[in-house]
Design goal:
By secondary structure, the chain is mainly beta. The protein is built from 1 helix and 18 strands. A hairpin with a 5-residue loop joins strand 8 and strand 9.
Length: 217
């Protein structure tokens, strides 16, 4: 967002009275609707108030990215859509040029996140769907799965429990595709600590696990 902010700030400076860097080419760029162009190929089309973008508008960047939505005093604030040069797209709430609130982030590689954002990062409750059909539904912090959540794979496996830095860590239950179950402690996506394992045929063992292996009671 720093690059975007820099362009918007430059936009504001130009509106403040300098035509050296940019100019109004159509409409009312003071208090109305107009088009403002930049020497680098950038362009803003939308509502103005007191020489600043205020209301609804579109901001086009030279690299092909585009923001469409609400502006408040020269900043992205409110509902908007930002399309990145690589095809990624965010559709949701902005506050002062950052994704903040609820939104949907769709990636060009097939991933999709629907949920809460805090200062541009996935944070709070959300659902992340991967291209292969794997789904994480739970808590996020600083852009990673953190807290309680459920991870379901297209193979039929399902983990319900605690996550740290995007991986199962702490207490959790894994239901495997072969109908076996591990219920216990995890470290970095592997059973580590006290837990119980139920075999597909119903037999059970309980005790200490280390790096995914049963050590004993």
């Amino acid at each position: 967002m720093k690059r975007r902010l820099a362009i918007i700030v430059a936009l504001g400076l130009a509106f403040a009275g300098s035509e050296v860097f940019a100019k109004c080419v159509e409409g009312d760029c003071a208090n109305g609707r107009g088009t403002f162009e930049y020497p680098n190929g950038g362009k803003y089309v939308g509502d103005f108030k007191s020489y600043y973008p205020n209301g609804q508008g579109e901001l086009f960047y030279p690299d092909g990215s585009k923001y469409t939505g609400a502006f408040v005093n020269n900043e992205f604030t409110g509902q908007g859509v930002y399309v990145f040069p690589n095809g990624d797209k965010y559709d949701g709430e902005f506050v002062r040029n950052k994704r903040h609130g609820r939104g949907t982030l769709t990636f060009s590689d097939g991933k999709k996140y629907v949920g809460q954002f805090d200062q541009d990062l996935k944070s709070g409750r959300g659902v992340l769907t991967f291209a292969d059909g794997t789904v994480y539904d739970g808590e996020f912090q600083a852009d990673a799965a953190q807290g309680l959540g459920t991870l379901t794979s297209p193979k039929g496996e399902k983990y319900v429990g605690q996550f740290v830095n995007g991986l199962p860590n702490g207490k959790g239950v894994m239901n495997y595709a072969d109908r076996s179950i591990y219920d216990g402690e995890w470290r970095n996506n592997v059973p580590n600590g006290q837990g119980g394992y139920t075999f597909p045929d119903g037999r059970k063992i309980r005790g200490l696990f280390r790096d995914g292996n049963y050590i004993g009671e």
